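Sequence in, structure out.
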Amino acid sequence: MLIEICANCWNYQHRLNWMLSSVVQQEGDNKPDILFNVSFAPNNGEPTTEDILGFFKYECGANIKKTLLKDKKEASCRGYIRQKQLEETEADWILFADCDMAYSKNFFSDLKGKLEGDLKDITQLITACRISLGIDFCTKYFKEHPVEKPFLVKDISDILADWPVYRVSGKGGPGNFQLANVKHCKDNKIRYTHCCRDIWRGTKSDRHFRLNMGGVHPIETAPMYHLNHDRGGPDEQR
């Protein structure tokens, strides 16, 4: 089974470094193959997204795919990006996620078991709760511990389990976790959105996709964490 995780990165490279650390440290005898697809515009951030992806591909063995964008304007158009990724994927399942997420070490082993069992015939959009960590804590932490160069955050699953929790989100199908059966999408020509008017914090494409998928099917998963941030904007507005 191949799961393609699709995330878009603009000014969230510090959190992307943690997200990828959690992906390459997945455990369990039933792990799926994971392809990590990152959409990004060139030369953004310090370190850049290119630096982060190169480190995790060549130093940590991550299976990385790049969706290269032109500029900030295009990087802000989530519906356009996700439609492109949906059209191009050859995976069994596609997981649309935000790049400030991180996963407990058995997350994908547990998820694969569900997809091979009770969820194998589900065609609706699969959704799940996330644990949003403390806003002030996360903002202060990443300000005081910036990712100056890419590195593997060891034992990340255990670290995040001890961080303060802001809240546990619902399962309504927001853009941080939207899991779809690729064959169903392609057989039925399901689109993520019909237009590109879909800017950051004003997204409408999430709702379109839920409707196009025939609604949502909420599930329980192993913990996944939101590396929270100031509501004012991306990663301290670097």
